[in-house]
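[#protein-structures] MJ: dropping Phosphatidate cytidylyltransferase here for a structure pass
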Amino acid sequence: MLKTRVITAVILLLVFLGAIFLLPRSIWALFCGVVAVLAAWEWGGFLGLASRSRVFLAGAVGLLLLALTLALPGMLGISDGFVLQGWAFGRFLLVPSVLFWAVAVPLWLRYRWPLKSLPLGLLVGAVVILPTWLALVQLRALGPWPLLAIMAVVWMADIAAYFSGRAFGKHKLAPNISPGKTWEGALGAGVGVIAYGWILRTTFPDYLDIAPLTLALGLVLVTAVSVIGDLFESLLKRQAGIKDSSQLLPGHGGVLDRIDSLTSTLPLVTLLWLVFQR
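AK: finished. structure tokens for Phosphatidate cytidylyltransferase:
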């Protein structure tokens, strides 16, 4: 099992790094579209859809994203004049996404509402998947390194939470949703990302000219939102009676299992960036 997990992780890392550094922005958008299509197929599993319906849902998402990529290159950061155009389009997906994660999901976790309604399930899936695709594409306009650094915040939070939780974890964060998560792990995640931000700011002061307190607060906010994203997917899997979103990635579960924290954090980061760059 461990060998399979390591092999899959290495392959995923090589594919991702090759895509983010080597693909042109237009092809990167299509690459992210493939990820979104697979996520949509898995989302159909949360909704209890039959195999044919899941394929139809994934195909519909793929056609929509392909149409957006071809029709709105400027708004996606694929061509010039991005920031203003990106805001003009992005706000229609990013603002609802941020409100969903900041307001609706904490209540959802509190009351553990089920996804019984198909229209509601499809709407929530759209709010989760489409803004994540848009954020990945728009943030790529900054360049591969900035996008990688932003995504690394989530990865650093996961790593710090894992080790601090194992070492000090005693108080359960959400025992009825994800028994393995603890408040100590969440605190460790916050400390870890602040340390990561300090290293980045010290190493690249010209590229990260942000007041230390502002940077720390922003990183803590992103960490908190990433935990919410992780817990939300855990709740949906528990309600659907499944351990993983799929078995597409041997040893790692499915696509949604790998990007659950990114679905909540990347739209927030993209929205803040577009607002401050206008």
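MJ: nice. Residues 2-277 form one domain.
AK: one more thing. The mean pLDDT is 90.
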